[in-house]
Amino acid sequence: CCFPTVLLKSLGLKEQYHREKLSLSKILQIDEKTMTDDPGTCKSNVPLYFLKKLMMVNVTARTVNHPGDSNCDDVSENRKRNFEDLFDSQNDAEVFNPLDIITALFLCSDGFVQQELALKMSMCQFSVPLLLPNCDTKQCTLMLWAMRDIVKKYRPPDLSESKGFKEERIVLSELPMISFVRLGECSLSKSEILNKLLSNPQQYHDTFVHHNMECGDSPRKLSDGLTEITWYLPCGNKNMDIFSEPVALANLRGDIAAHETQFSFLCQTSAAVFVFFDQLEPECKLLTNKNHKAKIFLVGNQQSKSFTPDVLKDRASELKLTTDNIIIKTKKTNDADFVRCLRTTVSSVLTNPGLKMSIEQMTNIAHELGISIDEDSPECQAGRENADAITAEIKDTFKFKEKQFHLQGQIWKELTYLEKEEFRLRKVGSEDIEKYKSDLKMKKEELRMKQNSHIQTIFPSLPDIDYVCLNYILGYS
Fold this sequence. Notes:
alpha/beta, Rossmann fold, 9-stranded mixed sheet, 17 helices, 13% strand
């Protein structure tokens, strides 16, 4: 992974990386650039173009290639192509890998923009960053705060008969996580296979960016080491559900030999880790760590020239793996059969996952491995402490609202009645109308004073809290 300055400068994000981070007010600003659907030919427009489409929950947001990038249509009508031209690259211009765009924006944004990015990406059914790499510090970050606003609703098997469902913040959901990593060079497209694994045959969706997507084959300059996460949540329909149990799926970009910290994290937080490989011999020691809690599965491609069955047999013996833990795409196996075999293996893991963990529970392991956590920032910690202080006394939500939130209780009902009576004057009787209205106004002011007195009880230190901290409080509340 190279130093990010050159790429960030090309994207027009160098200033945001080193100084002031992108804020929500900045990305929601309406100007000439946001009023057009044309990204133009300037490279620095690419991140803003991506942001604009993502904020509209446009599933084509990751198509960041602009018209000026492609040479496919450059052949003039008046000039015929030579035979040799057929073998030249059709795209010689510099293009950005979508993963680099996403990584750059997360690195250059404040916590609230990161949260909005993750939420919108989840709504588009894109994978979202779990571990964000930073080429400058050589340290990755667990994106807990960024995902805290994502709420998912699903129907687990035990609620299928009652037609009930479960709804909660995804960072609090204790789910088994299945991770997919690569060891050395691999001739199989891991991310494309994952997309097929998660898609019904009639409805394919690119959850993960892969080599055969537009710009997906562009070399990654910033996003090696990025670990993404997505979720498969059943709807309760046996004819539609791929997996009957809810599951999180993580995908590590790059070779695990170059990203041992991320690999160790996944091995300690996952129920199973599927290792894609062509050749096992050089880096096999990575798979023998005694601290690993996950079941290890090896996924190989017999069609690769470097694939050697004898070496695989020896390494499987060293790792004490049975044939149930080895999946091989043979020369006679097509993609559909291979994906079906992989899906069966994942389903078998989910019947007895052994390890279930929420993202919030992963923080201890992250700290042990030297992985930073986005919620460790002073502003975020202060926001959480204030939110905990505010919500500590809430045992029964209904009773708490009745006692504390008088806008929703008896005072609110009385105020509503008084406001209606001001206009209808149904009970004025023989009383002077002006005096009657004045009395109603006085009663309203008394009720308003009661409401105001309770605001300071609930938020005693609110005037002393700055804007950033207040937003963090609301994020935790």
